[in-house]
Design brief:
This protein is mostly beta strands. The chain contains one helix and 22 strands.
Length: about 290
């Protein structure tokens, strides 16, 4: 099933599977902002990353001395969510833990994803609740893929990312197993812009930690269209595109892949979030389209 919410400016479409955003159309400028999901390059458009972000060492983690297995980015992106509430300009999707999920992730939870429109802004709020009696450990991230080039007649290299503060931030390389290497390498050096080139992602995603910025914009030297992406409250940011594909992913994360040599203990995983019994956790990203 697919659902569309809209207002006078935006029409936004979401799949029930994974509560995955797949279309954002600006009615006034007649532009589609989302990647097409062409499976020849990458068949997804905006998967939710839960209950882990990135890869585990050997796809395995340990909790209370029990070994569990999860594939990269977890399972929520591949599961049908319930539609809990729907209005013209908003929709709430709900995923609950199940007998199947507990085999891979031994926590009782509710995960809500709320899409809301406000003029030319899309808000996506993630709400996690610990429904069990013990502490719950998790990571959560977003993975929206925006179309580049945005406008016919422009090229990939006409576009760039602009941060709202000057950055001196290295990238953390990703190993062949999908793990975070121990040493960072230079990337952003006394600048607030990152020119987009397809060669930028030859060695997987750019992984950034502890940025000063909370907003990054996708812009072009050739036209005035783009988007402003607010990731306040997310301590990690990934930037990625599949090889030779016409998109860029802007990925705010609360959590990160295991580092090379990690002891596989879930509770000591970098960036791990935790909730006590009955507690709730919430984060929101917002994109302004122009």
């Amino acid at each position: 099933m697919e659902y569309t919410i809209q207002n006078e400016i935006l029409a936004v479409s979401i799949k029930q599977k994974g509560a995955e955003l797949f279309s954002v159309i600006h009615k006034q400028n007649n532009l589609e902002y989302m990647w097409s999901g062409d499976p020849a390059f990458w068949g997804k458009t905006s998967p939710v990353l839960f209950p882990i972000v990135g890869a585990l060492r050997q796809n395995t983690y340990l909790f209370h001395a029990i070994r569990y297995s999860l594939n990269r980015h977890g399972f929520a992106r591949d599961v049908d969510f319930e539609v809990e509430k729907r209005a013209k300009d908003s929709i709430i999707f709900l995923l609950r833990s199940s007998a199947e999920s507990i085999q891979r992730y031994p926590f009782l939870f509710e995960l809500r994803m709320t899409y809301t429109l406000e003029d030319n802004i899309l808000h996506l709020t993630y709400d996690v609740k610990n429904m069990g009696n013990d502490n719950m450990y998790f990571s959560l991230g977003a993975h929206p893929a925006f179309k580049v080039p945005l406008v016919n007649g422009s090229s990939y290299g006409d576009h760039y990312l602009e941060f709202n503060k000057t950055e001196n931030a290295p990238r953390w390389p990703i190993s062949s197993e999908g793990l975070i290497e121990k040493e960072a390498v230079p990337l952003l050096q006394d600048t607030n812009t990152l020119p987009l080139t397809k060669s930028l992602f030859e060695n997987d995603a750019l992984v950034l930690k502890a940025l000063k910025s909370n907003i990054v914009s996708l812009r072009s030297h050739r036209h005035g269209h783009g988007l402003e992406f607010d990731f306040t409250g997310f301590p990690f940011l990934g930037i990625w595109a599949a090889k030779e594909a016409d998109f860029v992913c802007i990925e705010p994360w609360c959590g990160i892949a295991d580092s090379v040599g990690h002891d596989q203990q879930l509770t000591s995983k970098e960036g791990i979030e935790h909730l006590e019994s009955g507690e709730r956790w919430s984060r929101c990203w917002s994109a302004t389209f122009f």
